Amino acid sequence: MKNEHRAMTECAAEAARIARGVTPGQLAGPTPCGEWDVRALVNHWVLYTAHGLEHRALRTPLPDELTARDFTADADWAERYAAQLDRAVAAWADPAVWEGEVDLGGTALGAAHIASMVVKEMVVHGWDVARATGQEVRISEESAAFVLKVVEDNAELYRQYQGFADPVDLPPTAATFERALAASGRDPHWGA
C-alpha cells in the first residue's frame, strides 16, 4: 500500500499542476482521445480521478449531480480539482481502505486494484490533457513503472470496452512512460 499511495500522491500533484496549465481558450481544442475535445476530456478526468477516487475509498456511489456536471464551467475548476484530489488522496491514506472490495454497481473489484486503475487514468488522461494544451507530464521513474504495469495488466480489459486502442510500436529504447502510453494505444508523439 505504501508504494501505491506514494504513486497516487505524486500523480495527483502532477494532475493538479497540469490542470492549472489549461487556459479557457484551450477547452474547445482537440485531444488524443478522438471524439473528445479538451472540455469533455477534462470533465471525465475530474469526475473519475478526483471525485471517483474519493468515492471509491468511501465505498459510496458517485452522485448523479456529479456525472452530469460541467466542471470547467467554474472559472476556478483547476483549483477545485486540486482540492478534490487532495481529499481523495487523504481518503486512501488509511491502510484499511486498501483492503476488501469496491462495488462498481454490480461488479466488485479489489480496492487496491481499483485504486491502481484510477491512478493510471489520472496519469494517462493527464498526458492527454497535457499534450492537448502544450504541456508535458513529469513523473518519477518509479511512478512511470507503476503506470506501465497497470496498463499492461489491464490492457485487454480496456480494449474490450474501447478504452484503449491497439498498442503503438516504439523503439526498444523508449522511456518507461512512453511505453505505458504506447501500450494504452496512444502515440507518445501525438500533437494537436
Automatic annotation (TrEMBL):
It holds the Pfam family MDMPI_N. It comes from Streptomyces mauvecolor. NCBIfam families: maleylpyruvate isomerase family mycothiol-dependent enzyme, TIGR03086 family metal-binding protein. SUPFAM superfamilies: DinB/YfiT-like putative metalloenzymes (SSF109854). Residues 10-130 form the Mycothiol-dependent maleylpyruvate isomerase metal-binding domain. This is TIGR03086 family metal-binding protein. The lineage of its organism: Bacteria, Bacillati, Actinomycetota, Actinomycetes, Kitasatosporales.
